[in-house]
Amino acid sequence: MTLPFFVYGTLRPGRVNHGLFLRGRTGAEEPGRLTGAVLYEGPGYPYAVEEREGVVHGDLVTARPGTYRELLAVLDRLEEYVPGDPRNLYERVARDVHRDTGGPPVRAWVYVAAAPVADRLRARGERIPDGRWPSPRP
Description:
single chain; Gamma-glutamylcyclotransferase; five-stranded mixed β-barrel; Hypothetical upf0131 protein ytfp
């Protein structure tokens, strides 16, 4: 299934991993939001955790023609995601993402916290209240 990606942390435009992993591989990037998830602080990057109520702000990234398989492999490697591996920190899931400009939702790949990580974050993690990373500090 060929889908765009929803990025919400270090892969967003202007962040460190955007230049390292996305530059030259994207055909379109546009602001969007994922509903049904919240953000938690991680060690230098955030985790999206699926929750009934909540919103995560980020960017919808579409692969440049001819680069999809390469981009998928690069992002899976970056997120240390291996399908079915119980040691995953993230799971890659297909979710509906809303463009900030409006229109119907777009189905996209999103890396969300794997169940054990999500449970740990819910119990003692630092939630980012506005769903934007990095979170503005007072």
